[in-house]
Amino acid sequence: MKTSELLKILKKNGCYFSQHGKRHDIWISPITNKQIPVPRHKDEIKPGTLKSILEDAGIQ
Asked: Which domain, by its residues, includes 48?
């Protein structure tokens, strides 16, 4: 999954942008109140990383 597709899913589930990092953006989930680092790479996000992001966001 591309980062742009992941961001659409996060926004749809109420997550919001917090800050920029060097290689990652930090998003916050209102469901879990966790900070979620989301990579800004153009490549596909690895399945394990994607699963971890969705779990931290409270989506999966």
From this structure: 3-57
